[in-house]
């Protein structure tokens, strides 16, 4: 059976999988310090490199999760392509993350004891470098407030092999926020009415951020360019507290919550087996890719409930396959050249993936 559907436009999405809440790892802390290079913040023990950075990953599930299937990425300065990517690999011990536990991935140049003492893994050096955990480019933990970050799960069970599935995103991939001056390093920022008054300013630079306690799953589609981190994140420490002037407070930025996410109040769900995800993902293909004029979505031996493409206005078209083996032709002649993703939802509603499509 063959059908044609016309796509008016598409919203740039990121390859992802969607499961029930509390069933997959997600980013739970983001720390971007403003410590000055060459200054000691450890009582003279060592001087800071100016790269006091860390991210934390939380396991909300009831299972011990093998980290061999996971990686973290950086998209530097508005890049739509990955600039650095590293596997998750503990420095010592078994490479698993226990239920309700957190994993800390820190900059390899971090010197602050509050970071280094909690780090389960230290990032490789600045790109370009190679190393046992580097998948592409080099170390990814040298991010600034204008870099997007993603947590990735690989369908093969080994990071760097098979199909990468983005399961959480911090920032907006493909967009670089700029400061008011229009040049230099910007940041995503905003407030949340839930924080009351005065408004609490949450930003992707110079702050220690935690995921809000009721968030139980990652962001699986790319955030808008005007992404507001305060929607899902809250600040617990500042390099530049409200009312402060100059650099007098940067050394007081705290990382005290790093290594735990004890405030989590969401559900603890069942972890989705990789075999289930791999079978569904491998049963759907889009070709030709790159494509011009039209593209075909081919379904083989999997039950797809619907195929949806959204645009930036929230409009959508929906195709509903009728069998486990089908070819659906998408008319993409009206789309501008670029990177697009087509959403495929399983018939039982348990799995959602976004397949990459490049339009010439």
From TrEMBL:
Domain Secretion system C-terminal sorting: 286-351
UniProt cross-references to InterPro entries, sorted A to Z: Secre_tail
Keywords, comma-separated and alphabetical: Signal
Transmembrane segments: none
Record has Signal as a keyword: yes
Signal peptide extent: 1-20
Protein name, entry field: T9SS type A sorting domain-containing protein
């Amino acid at each position: 059976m063959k059908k044609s559907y016309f796509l008016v436009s598409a919203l740039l999405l990121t390859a992802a999988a969607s499961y029930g809440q509390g069933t997959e790892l997600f980013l739970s802390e983001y720390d971007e310090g403003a410590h000055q290079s060459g200054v000691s913040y450890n009582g003279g023990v060592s001087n800071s490199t100016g790269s006091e950075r860390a991210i934390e990953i939380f396991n909300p599930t009831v299972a011990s999760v093998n980290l061999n299937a996971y990686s973290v990425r950086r998209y530097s300065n508005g890049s739509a392509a990955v600039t650095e990517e590293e596997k998750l690999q503990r420095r010592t011990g078994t490479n698993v993350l226990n239920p309700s536990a957190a994993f800390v991935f820190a900059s390899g140049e971090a010197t602050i004891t509050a970071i280094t003492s909690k780090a389960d893994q230290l990032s490789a050096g600045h790109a370009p470098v190679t190393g046992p955990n580097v998948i592409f480019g080099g170390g990814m933990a040298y991010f600034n407030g204008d870099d997007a970050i993603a947590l990735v799960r690989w369908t093969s069970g080994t990071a760097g092999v098979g199909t990468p599935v983005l399961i959480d995103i911090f920032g907006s991939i493909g967009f670089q926020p700029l400061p008011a001056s229009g040049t230099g390093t910007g940041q995503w920022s905003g407030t949340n009415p839930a924080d009351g008054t005065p408004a609490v300013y949450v930003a992707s630079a110079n702050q220690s951020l935690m995921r809000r306690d009721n968030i139980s799953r990652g962001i699986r589609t790319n955030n808008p360019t005007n992404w507001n981190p305060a929607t899902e994140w809250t600040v617990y420490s500042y390099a530049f507290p409200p009312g402060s002037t100059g650099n007098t407070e940067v050394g007081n930025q705290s990382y005290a919550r790093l290594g735990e996410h004890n405030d989590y109040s969401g559900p603890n769900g069942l972890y989705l087996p990789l075999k289930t995800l791999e079978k569904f993902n491998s049963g759907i293909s889009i070709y030709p890719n790159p494509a011009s004029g039209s593209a075909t979505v081919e379904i083989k031996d999997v039950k797809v409930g619907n195929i949806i493409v959204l645009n930036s206005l929230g409009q959508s078209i929906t195709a509903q396959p009728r069998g486990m083996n089908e070819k659906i032709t998408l008319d993409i002649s009206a789309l501008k050249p670029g990177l697009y993703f087509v959403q495929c939802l399983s018939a039982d509603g348990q799995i959602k993936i976004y397949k990459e499509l490049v339009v010439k």
